[in-house]
Amino acid sequence: MSAVPGAAGTRHEAARYEAVIGIEVHCKLRTASKMFCACSTAYDGAAPNSHTCPVCLGLPGVLPTINRRAVQLVLATGLAIDAELAPTTRWDRKNYFYPDLPKGYQISQYQLPLAADGRLAFDTSEGPVTIRIRRAHLEEDTARLVHAELGGRRVSLVDFNRAGVPLMEVVTEPDVRTAEQARRYAEELRLVLRAIGASDAEMENGQLRVEANVSLRPAGREELGTRVEVKNMNSFRAVERAIAHEIERQAEVLNAGGSVHQETRGWDDARQATYLMRIKESEDDYRYFPEPDLPPLRVAPAWLDEIGGTLPELPGTRRARYREALGLSAYDAAVIVADPGATELFEGTLAEAADLAPKAVANWVTGEYLRLSRAGGAGAPEASAPGSTAPAARAPLAGHAGQPATAIAGRVTPAALAALLRLVADGQLSGTNAKEVFAAHFASGQAVAAIVEARGLRQISDADVIAAAVDRVLAASPAAVADYRAGKAQALGFLVGQVMKATRGQANAGAVQGALRERLDRTEA
Ligand code: ADP
Ligand code: MG
Ligand code: ZN
């Protein structure tokens, strides 16, 4: 980017700067119990403070116990992001006072995170990007503050159900350069977390929280500028908008001769602007020290092998396989892998019918299937493919090819799509009618063959049937026949139309044209 001295338009304030962004993601791990006690993490919809015990309430005299599954999920994440896994780690106390923190400290990992030095690669509209990941560590969540009005008074209530829930924090190096890269990084991380079963990672209900550290520096300079932490973004779109907004805000400050203050700002989605939340604490304020109530944690190599052995195919590997082994475009591969329902349908259909061309299956999945599932509200609009603004629907990751073709509206089974594509390949269904059948199957779950029969959509390719219809039409259309013989090419189109009409649109148009030509040219001679 070149410096434009004096350019002061609000939309281009940032033109002379380079943005530097580091991202911190907190995600709620998919465990049955809390991080250091046996309380259930399934408290959604439960009465406040019904999922608590002396440990997660921080009562005196209790001792924490480490949740093995939570450790396992962070290790799996570490493997998935190609990180170094610590053979031995320990826990640290992060001290601060807040009503949502009953112990007065949070147990976290400061000096020795479970995973360090990883990376995540993904595509953006400007090409592929790899972001280095500094660390992934385990910690515990805080309670939830509820600000309410009670008997005419404004009160703040504390619900400890969330207190002590296992959280993983994943922190990048300051490698991100644009708001789009930040959104794509968060989307890709969520895809990985879901693929390995580490987290449900729903942004709207706080299972995945994205915070961005944003600073600017003059283009070409090495030294980092002062950063601002932006939080409270509850969708991927908000992540991108908040960061873009913050880049512009800082550029305005700098261009006006001011300086950026290190602070925490919140994103106000309604106003589409960030606002000051607080001046940032420094690390010293937390008085980190090793947690005396927990022993160091040693990770047995055999356990690591076991975790590595059960990792599924990761999104990046799957995209590469779709491109390289199946010949899909980078775009189709990204769109399919970004959506679990699409992935399931694509994989399942190919498993069902190995004879079908992957590209043809991909076209139906990225085209008709995603169009209908997005329009039908089968899932919340969330992730998107690089360079696209279209939201992707979410569908549960259920079984693949082996599952029975049960009739469920709003879903397409691999068996149904395979059956449909076979009819098209065999010339029994026209492309246009296939879309109609697909939509009807999507809406009702009714079997493809039954829809084709009920709607009379089976294409007539039988040469005798077509020849009979052609003969009838030729006999009834002497003027058009004469025109054709006089060299008027359009006459053929008219005759094809007549045969299609006579067969109620069911004749194979290509076969009809061939039969007509053959008859006309033969009788002419
Ligand atoms: P904290 O202790 O506040 O969490 P860290 O040093 O751990 O701060 O960094 C948090 C995140 O901020 C990391 O993702 C890091 O890459 C990023 N970061 C650090 N300095 C800057 C900067 N000057 N500009 C942008 N991002 C930064
Ligand atoms: Mg931090
Ligand atoms: Zn508890």
Relevant terms:
525 residues; alpha+beta; Arc Repressor Mutant, subunit A; 3 domains; 3-stranded antiparallel β-sheet; 16 strands; binds magnesium ion; binds zinc ion
Q: Which percent bin holds the helix content?
A: 25-40%
Strand order of the largest sheet: 2-6-7-10-1-11-12-13-14
Number of individual domains = 3
Secondary structure: number of strands = 16
The number of helical segments is 15
Using the CA coordinates, give the radius of gyration. 30 Å
Largest sheet: 9 strands, mixed
User: What is the typical, i.e. mean, pLDDT?
Assistant: 89
Q: Low-confidence segments, ≥5 residues, pLDDT <50?
A: 1-10, 378-385, 387-406
Shape: elongated
Report the structural category: alpha+beta
* Small molecules (ligands, ions, cofactors) in the structure: adenosine-5'-diphosphate, magnesium ion, zinc ion
Provide the β-strand percentage band.
15-25%
Give the end-to-end Cα distance, rounded to a whole number of Å: 72 Å
Describe this structure in words.
With 525 residues, the chain is an alpha+beta fold. The protein has 3 domains: 291 residues, no CATH class; 144 residues, no CATH class; 58 residues, Arc Repressor Mutant, subunit A, CATH 1.10.10.410. Helix content is 37%, strand content 20%. Strands 2-6-7-10-1-11-12-13-14 form a 9-stranded mixed sheet. A hairpin with a 2-residue loop joins strand 8 and strand 9. Zinc ion binds next to loops.
What can be said about this structure in brief?
The protein is of the alpha+beta class.
List the helices and strands and how they pair.
Blueprint: E1 17-28, H1 68-80, E2 84-85, E3 88-89, E4 92-95, E5 105-108, E6 115-124, E7 127-140, E8 144-150, E9 153-159, E10 166-172, H2 179-195, E11 208-218, E12 228-233, H3 236-255, E13 263-268, E14 273-279, E15 289-290, E16 297-298, H4 301-309, H5 315-324, H6 330-337, H7 340-352, H8 358-375, H9 414-425, H10 431-444, H11 448-454, H12 463-476, H13 478-485, H14 490-502, H15 509-524
Parallel strand pairs: 12-13
Antiparallel strand pairs: 1-10, 1-11, 2-6, 3-16, 4-5, 4-15, 6-7, 7-10, 8-9, 11-12, 13-14
The protein binds adenosine-5'-diphosphate, magnesium ion (MG) and zinc ion.
Zinc ion binds near residues 34, 37, 53, 55 and 164.
